[in-house]
Design goal:
Low-confidence stretches: none
CATH class of the largest domain: Mainly Alpha
Radius of gyration: 26 Å
CATH topology of the largest domain: MetI-like fold
Number of strands: 2
Distance between the termini: 45 Å
Helix content: over 70%
Number of domains: 2
CATH superfamily of the largest domain: MetI-like
Mean pLDDT: 88
Largest sheet: 2 strands, antiparallel
Order of helices and strands: HEEHHHHHHHHHHHHH
Length: 307
């Protein structure tokens, strides 16, 4: 009896050591990858933001006593940063709101037993698989003022053609439409997957109680999708807040800075004005905002576990 216990303990320690070894084998490569692709660039940007550094002289940097941040916060509410910050928020939250509403409607329709729903789901994914750069060029052709398809349709209907991307009033809305079209399949697919995980027993029980389809959606479908909606909403807000390719390819922040978001402002400052220090400071500030917003969002919309 006394001899069996030490042997058993040795086996347990050996198994535990093997588990730890396998855990480290799986986790360390991921940590190294994240360190080189995320942590190091963020730390490097934060470090650079405290210096005067030009793209033309990368080897020379001068400590500037937080001057980059002082310049941003001087006359803050009339500055470029505040303007770009407001545009980024307006773009992100408008796109996500419209995208979420349309995704819920599409997910409900495509989750029903309708003919050809597999084909429709495949077609729905097409905007998502098209590269963002190709999407931007495609919609630039559609928006083209002289020979674009959209203006041709407007002229055919006897309506006045629009400048779309060339107008201060319509440029941001035009890019919002492209962003919704591009990202709608992702949100819809996530919601469909969430709907398919709901047990049919709930719907059968509610039908026996005389509930209508609308009541089923309101009292069963939406509550069970809360965690999926929360996750996809947060991811979509972050993706749209830091959206860069659509803006840069389609308008480059114009006309008259009407589409200059924080991502565009960071790029313009760093690689057009060649001021890496100021560009890094702008990037650090909106990264801080996104981290704080994500924590607040997760705290407000706590995960609900449904049984």
């Amino acid at each position: 009896m006394n001899k069996v216990a030490p042997v058993r303990n040795r086996h347990q320690l050996k198994n535990k050591a093997q588990d730890i070894g396998m855990y480290m084998f799986l986790v360390i490569p991921a940590i190294l990858l994240l360190s080189f692709t995320i942590f190091y660039p963020v730390v490097k940007s934060a470090y650079t933001s405290f210096f005067d550094q030009s793209l033309l002289s990368l080897g020379k940097r001068t400590w500037n006593d937080f001057q980059n941040y002082k310049d941003i916060f001087t006359d803050f509410f009339n500055g470029e940063f505040w303007h770009a910050f407001l545009l980024s928020n307006r773009f992100a939250f408008t796109v996500v709101f419209v995208q979420l509403f349309l995704s819920i409607v599409l997910a409900i329709v495509l989750n029903e037993n309708i003919r050809g729903k597999r084909v429709l789901r495949s077609i729905l994914l097409m905007p998502w698989v098209i590269p963002t750069a190709v999407t931007a060029l495609l919609w630039m052709w559609l928006y083209q003022p002289d020979y674009g398809v959209l203006n041709y349709i407007l002229k055919t209907l006897g309506m006045k053609p629009s400048l779309w991307l060339g107008s201060v009033d319509s440029a941001l809305t035009s890019i919002m439409i492209v962003s919704v079209w591009k990202q709608l399949p992702f949100t819809t697919t996530m919601l469909i997957a969430g709907m398919q995980s709901i047990s049919p027993d709930f719907y059968e029980a509610s039908s026996l109680d005389g509930a209508s389809k609308l009541q089923n959606y309101y009292y069963i479908t939406i509550p069970f999708l809360k965690n999926v909606i929360k996750s996809t909403t947060l991811v979509s807000i972050i993706e749209n807040f830091k959206m860069f390719p659509l803006f840069w390819i389609m308008t480059q922040g114009g006309p008259i800075n009407s589409t200059t978001t924080l991502a565009v402002l960071t790029y313009q400052t760093s690689f057009v004005s060649m001021d890496l220090g100021m560009g890094a400071a702008i990037g650090v500030l909106w990264i801080i905002f996104l981290v704080a917003f994500s924590r607040l969002f997760n705290r407000v919309f706590k995960e609900n576990t449904l049984y």
